[in-house]
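Tokens as discussed.
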């Protein structure tokens, strides 16, 4: 996982948590609606071997809610970890750039306007911030393939004839 991808998780985690909780709510509502007497016709004979549709729905709802809560807990922990790592970036400008971009969700254009940076200067700070973050925390999320790719890219920058 590249540094940008790792940091970008922070933007999607809240949506993923909300989706999981909505899914659990959907199952909970389904459990409460299943088996209602208004939906039953007294003349119908039950031919299914599943005698407890409401119990099944409640069981699925409980499992979905447990899974949603556990998933939300894991996602919140990832978000907390990334936010904490960003807050520990030593260079203040780099911290401000990463926090504004990933935590606050600002675009580079918005950051340029609020910090009075030129476009090239904003991207220079952003790229330097990514490098600093990766040097400090890259071991925690970069795969061996990411490391090999990064080394080959560095060689190409040093000597473009290779």
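Sequence:
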């Amino acid at each position: 996982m590249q540094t940008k991808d790792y940091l970008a998780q922070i933007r999607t985690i809240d949506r993923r948590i909300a989706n999981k909780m909505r899914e659990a709510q959907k199952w909970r509502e389904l459990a409460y609606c299943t088996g209602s007497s208004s939906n039953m016709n007294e003349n119908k004979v039950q031919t299914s071997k599943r005698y407890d549709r409401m119990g099944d729905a409640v069981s699925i709802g409980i499992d979905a809610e447990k899974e949603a809560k556990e998933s939300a807990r894991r996602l919140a922990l990832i978000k907390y970890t990334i936010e904490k790592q960003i807050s520990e970036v030593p260079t203040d400008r780099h911290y401000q750039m990463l926090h504004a971009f990933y935590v606050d969700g600002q675009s580079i254009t918005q950051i340029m306007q609020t910090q009075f940076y030129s476009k090239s200067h904003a991207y220079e700070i952003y790229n330097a911030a990514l490098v600093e973050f990766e040097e400090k925390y890259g071991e925690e999320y970069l795969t061996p393939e990411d490391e090999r790719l990064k080394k080959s890219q560095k060689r190409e920058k040093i000597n473009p004839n290779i």
